[in-house]
Every structure is written in C-alpha cells, then in structure tokens.
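#onboarding

Welcome to the new folks! Below is a worked example of what a typical request in this channel looks like: someone posts a single protein sequence, and someone else replies with the predicted structure as tokens. Don't worry about understanding the tokens yet, we'll cover that in week two.

Example request:
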Amino acid sequence: MYYNLLINKDGLKNAIMKFDLPKDKVDKKISEFKSGDVFNVDGYQLRADQITRIKIVESELTSAQILDKLNASIPAGCLVFYTNKSIFEDNKFVKDVTDDFLD
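Example response:
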C-alpha cells in the first residue's frame, strides 16, 4: 500500500503534500504530531497548533499511476486535467484513512 499525506498549515497558501509514503513513515509523522513535538515535512518545521488540516489516503497504486488513470478517463474534447492534489479528492483509487491514523 501507498500512503499520501496532505497538511494545511496556518500562513501557507498551498498545502504540503507527500506522496507514496510507506505506512511506518506516516505513523512516525502522526505520532510526532500527536505528541506536540516539532516535526519536519518537506522541509517545513511544524507544530500541532499550526496545523489546520491533515488528510491521509491509501492506495494500491502509486500517485503517478492514479494520475495516469484519472487523466486517461477524461473524455476527448474536455478541458480537464488532474493534478497531484486530485489524489486527495474522492476517487475510486484511494481510500481516506485519516481517522484510522488520528484515532
């Protein structure tokens, strides 16, 4: 399984996104978040009180494979393009497991 992590932080315009993580790396980041320790994600030093949203999705496919499948499903003539953030939206390739990690 692959895990994708999205974090919104106060003061940041764009979400911090990490893709195709193993479960143990996600477990470690969530453990640090829950303990209130400062933790690093993609070069950002974060504290729990700065975090406004965390979302974790799991998939049997890598993020690149999901995007390939989503983009291939667009009917000809439509002006739609899926991006990395699309992986966190509801689609048939991912399952939201945020509560499993935060509970």
